Amino acid sequence: MNVAIVTVGDELLAGRTTNTNATWLSEQLTERGVSVERVTTVPDRIGDIARVVNEYRAEYDAVIVTGGLGPTHDDVTMEGAAAALGCSLETHDGALAWLEEDGYSRADLTAGTADLPVGARPLHNETGVAPGAVIESVYVLPGVPAEMRTMFDSVADEFSGTQTYREVVVADEPESALLDRITAVRERFEVSVGSYPGDSVRLSLEGTDEETVLTAAAWLRDHVDRTE
Hints:
Mean pLDDT: 94
Number of helices: 8
Number of strands: 11
Shape: elongated
Helix content: 25-40%
Order of helices and strands: EHHEHEHEHEEEEHEHEEH
Strand content: 25-35%
Structural class: alpha/beta
Largest sheet: 6 strands, mixed
């Protein structure tokens, strides 16, 4: 299963808010064996949201959109998702019922709070107000981290893939000097290798067979200079 993540918010693009939602979702999906193919941030504009969601839903098994839910003027994500699917918004009675059960009267709610794309499956917001939704392969979640995480947990079982295993080898050599060992471990073992230089070089080995990954990491540790 491959997935694209779309985070919405002018504050993310301006650097005023750290995009922890994208990191958390990527970790959760990767742990479930899902391949995260894209992480994209777009502004609070309906056209931008609709264009990116429409493009990604054609390319990937699922699109997760987070941020910009609610009835205020700059909460336009649900409208953008609806536009991507070619449908309109309507008040969802089930979502209103959930809110009433949580102690919100319809009279107290701002107009539009429970507006969802026609035909959407509503997702109850256990820790906030604005509901989420699933429209075909598009999952629309809140931007508040606690709300997003709780809502994702309610649909997490819908995301699965091939389990991958990972080992890290830290080498005390320049990255350029390691190219022959990187090539060799790829040829000897069915693993992918990522190289991440810093004060030392972190070599990340990944594969679908745990024993192969462990054996490859052991081989590589024996063939690079390491700081004990």
